[in-house]
Predict the 3D structure of the following.
Amino acid sequence: MAASVGRICRAGLLKSPHVPTINQFSSLSTTREWTKGRKALLGTIGMLAGGAGALLLALDRSVRASDLELHPPKHVWSHSGMFSSLDHASVRRGYEVYKQVCAACHSMRFIAYRNLVGVTHTEEEAKAEAEEQMVLDGPNEQGEMFKRPGKLSDYFPSPYPNEEAARAANNGAYPPDLSYIVSARHGGEDYIFALLTGYCDAPAGVVLREGQYFNPYFPGGAISMAQALYNEAMEYTDGTPATASQLAKDISTFLKWTAEPEHDDRKKMLMKAIGIFSFLMAITYYIKRMKFSTLKTRKIEFRPKEK
Amino acid sequence: MKMNLRKTHPLIKILNNSLIDLPTPSNITTMWNFGSLLGLCLMIQIITGLFLAMHYCPNVDMAFNSVAHICRNVNYGWLIRTLHANGASFFFICLYIHIGRGIYYSSYYLLETWMIGVTIFFMVMATAFLGYVLPWGQMSFWGATVITNLLSAIPYLGTSIVQWIWGGFAVDNATLTRFFSFHFLLPFIVSALVIMHLLFLHQTGSNNPLGTKSNIDKIPFHPYFTFKDIMGMLVMTFFLVFLTLNTPYMLGDPDNFIPANPLVTPVHIQPEWYFLFAYAILRSIPNKLGGVIALVMSIAILYIIPFTNKKKFSSTQFYPINKLLFWSMFTIVVLLTWIGARPVEDPYILTGQLLTILYFFYYLINPIMNKVWDKMIFFN
């Protein structure tokens, strides 16, 4: 194959097609006309600017390292790429983790069961999920509130009736709503993953109050949420081994989806936008060059008046 | 002889004189594209803003939820919202380049155009600040609290003015409602000022890189600059769309995804990136009133440039020392932006103070160096 391509293209592929262009550019350069003094001055300014920049960067880094809080390491998520969609199997497993582990304390007030349709569940599955909840509705014709099985249009139920009840049940701490949690934290899903897998014993000198745990990724280190994810803490319906890191990865992906449900549409649109704009920009650039060609190639001649 | 309709019709001839037959210097560069790009930014902001206003609820109990509703339930609401938020950033990128070009090539000699331009800059800053409060996240609320409280530094009247602006004793529902009203209104005032800006510009014609009178070599606006502007608009729109679709929340603050809570103060309160340089100047002055004056002066100083910079050539390219000063000023503004995002602790405090001094020093030293160079060149 390579030999055929070589025969067809002959030695053309081996030659750089840009040599004349590079020569042209280098002849346009005026640096060779600079005086020694100018070269020295500009070189010194360049070095000073570079040195000052490096110093500032080092200064910034050194101060950052003195923080008491651990910054989450960056992970390569399957959806990190410019054109990569979310891993929908992972989002579905993440929903299972949320339902079985997180939903006991955390609400998700911006996600409705209808949002699951076509993303993690089929319509029938999503309906079945919704029907597992009893939702307060009404008033009916007698003016009374009543409970009914959930529908697709219902939002995920909140574990507590209000913030005060949540605080009372959690030693004064308020478990935040998780709908936007990935967008609302520096580090996004990396932070969530690091937090969920980062529990450890408090180092010497760190005093924790009753009901608090140590997590170096949480600002201040003392967190009121106990470690929730352990190996085999639950079972996945698809049979994936439920290690603690697998659970953390899946819930982080699910929470990325809850924060940005438009994620996949956005990236599909990006692909289209790049195609359309590349075409339009190339066309307008050509037209602009063509229109200006008359002006750019004109010759201006000075003819003094004859006396 | 029958005249062409575009030259005789009372309405069309206005467009003709601005967009078709307008005599334009032949040598203006890409740096002159940013005026039209700003017009495009204003249009994008007004159109996306109009669609957002159809769904937004300016009420403290509903504002955050209504923005979530726009992003989640409205058709392409997420796109409209992120285009509007990132559009503000592009508006400021274009503004800074436009102003920088004006300073470098001394476009401020077109006095009325420059004065209206600086006023537009103030108005756009106010509009952007008001708009940032509307999502009613933590940074919206605390940003509004910090900035409105600055007015309390005004002697005698400060507290009364702040409470008058709040419509109460704290940033609350009345504040949000009126901020929405003004955020809606100001872009139309900006549009009117833009028309005046163009009206005065077209009295004299554009400046050009050489700074010479260019009447001997002018070309019609169409087709040359219509196509050049369309190309510029496409390139800018591409970058805006790319940012919006690739990393829509990169320039935002994660704290603004947390609903506003007057009882919890965020660890670092900071404005959007485009205000950071002014915020750094504000924080550099230990006295509150002094800080507010420095903040206002950091922009208002642009009003005095036409009167202080008197020189023999228009463009800075003919003044090597001023060229160096200009790019130093650029570096200072970048560093101030960086300082504005740092916590208030050493070594950032001292660095910010030094940069603030250097920022204002530029406006003093620049005209002096112009004079010095003129003396050197024209010394007999």
About this structure: Chain A touches chain B at residues 49, 56, 59-60, 63, 82, 110, 115, 176, 179-180, 183-186, 219, 259-262, 266-267, 269-270, 273-274, 277, 280-281, 284-285, 287-288, 291-292, 295 (CB under 8 Å). Chain A is about 45% helix and 5% strand. The domain at 67-88+97-108+176-263 of chain A is CATH 1.10.760.10 (Cytochrome Bc1 Complex; Chain D, domain 2).
